[in-house]
Amino acid sequence: MSDERNIKDPKRDKKQLITEKLIEQQKEARIVRKIVFITAIVAILLIGAVGGGGYYYIKEAMKPVEENSKKTIDVTIPIGSSTTGIGQILEDKGVIRDARVFKYYVKFKNEAGFMAGDYKMKPSMTLPEIITSLKTGKVMQDVVMKITIPEGKQLKQIAGIIAEKTKQDEEEVFKQLNDKEFIKKMMEKYPDVLTEEILKENVKYPLEGYLFPATYPFYSEKPTLEEIVTVMLTKTKKVLGDFRGQMEEKEMSTHELMTMASLIEEEATEKADRDKIASVFYNRLEDGMMLQTDPTVLYAHGEHKERVYYKDLEIDDPYNTYKIKGLPPGPIANPGVMSIEAALAPADTDDLYFLATSTGDVLFSKTLDEHNRKVNEHITDKK
Fold first, then answer.
1. 206, 253 Cβ separation under 8 angstroms
2. From 108, 142, 186, 323, which residue has the greatest number of CB atoms within 10 Å?
3. pLDDT digit string, tens, across residues 92-103
């Protein structure tokens, strides 16, 4: 009789195989991280070996500079500083022993989100204590100024907010936000956020939609525009980082996501179900219908209006979704987290139309006849 243990079961649980594969991939990832860390340490060991042995060098480099010191040191971390730059600043100030050890320690621990600002640190601090301080942003300076960018604002409006807060000329701020060299510089800093798609034909303003809505604190009275935009794009990068998995699953580029999310943002009211609005947009795209969303018409006109009239729909512009199929060339405003979430996880509906009422409610319809009845019932000043 044959040994049944040697016979492979053709009905082996597929889910178990997938689980095993995932566990194996996770183990491989951990091993790769360890290899990278060890390789980096070995490189440092070779340098430190001259001073009395690599192991001793690394061990000593990870210790506090002066374990019992009560001295405080003023440390300034500029906006946009890299891990390498931060490590060098800390070494130069006498807060850590070796910038390279700090850099590889941070990478091995997968630490990120360090905050710019002015800190009071001590030579007695350990590396974990220093990293915690940098991540929580415990600054010694008070916030001098805050810039609040609400959701749904367009680049022109954001330029106005920045100009007012920094006492600059609004037109000059807007001009710099669209300067080719400035944009390229930002693209080099944030390649995973600002892709080549922002430069494609018909995009009105490359940074439109990418300056994330939030309240930003600043510790100097006159931060430069580059410092301001850097902080905003850092926030955008952090937010989008939480959605990378969903973006890959939907095979959606950053530009497509921000464009769709901006349409949802501009159509949504406080009471709106954003995931249902997203569902309507996706349903229309799937059916080969034009999106026909009024905010794109207003964006094409470059002005705000309380209502869109039939004559407004005739504008010949690549952003006018009453004239073009598919998404417009780029975002039409800066979307918030809820709109980004809706763009990635739309509701499962068959709706093809929606109508925002004067009370802030949004009514959804599956057919044009149903939609028109609701228009006649709720809209008195028809466009």
1. no
2. 186
3. 999 999 999 999
